[in-house]
Amino acid sequence: MTVTRIEEARDMKAMGWPLDTPVVDGVMSKGTTMHFKAIVKAHAAFENARNEYVFGPRAESVGKWKLLRRRLVDLDQISAKAGDFALAQRGGDDHSVEVIAQIVIRIAEFIRFWHEAIEIVEGGEPLKISAGDVPKVFDED
């Protein structure tokens, strides 16, 4: 990871990472690639469901709410499988599993945020979320 923004430095510091971590180019294994693609696909499906719930023609419908919850559960399960894969491969020859391990760490915060948001809404409380409130999973660049 290359630190290019103060937010990235804060995230790395919070996780206990050194801020002078070298950038390494490498090839991801088939297993790492499979889990990476699954996480990206599940994250996109959740974001699409969220957008449909907020902006779609059936915005705020019960059906779209249930879809949103299902997509979050799917993302959580896929992330857990990827985490299990990374743990099983730890210490082996496949160093590309570090990519999955770091994404699982970042996505856990994202999933926790949305689980808590859903609990608030289902508890009958109003909820306002700004773009900056949602933990990032992937960097823009």
How does this structure look, described?
By secondary structure, the chain is mainly α. The chain has one domain (29-133). The chain contains 4 helices and no strands. The chain is globular.
Domain tally: 1
Share of helix, binned: 55-70%
Rounded Rg: 17 Å
Main β sheet profile:
none
Q: Give me the strand/helix succession.
A: HHHH
Number of strands: 0
Relative strand content: under 5%
What would the average pLDDT be, to the nearest integer? 87
Classification by helices and strands: mainly alpha
Q: For the terminal residues, how far apart are their CA atoms? A: 11 Å
| Uncertain spans | none
Provide a count of the helices. 4
Principal-axis shape: globular
How would you summarize what this structure contains?
By secondary structure, this protein is mainly α. Helices cover 63% and strands 0% of the residues.
Describe this protein with a few key phrases.
141 residues; single chain; mainly alpha
Summarize the SSE layout with pairings.
Blueprint: H1 6-14, H2 30-55, H3 62-89, H4 97-122
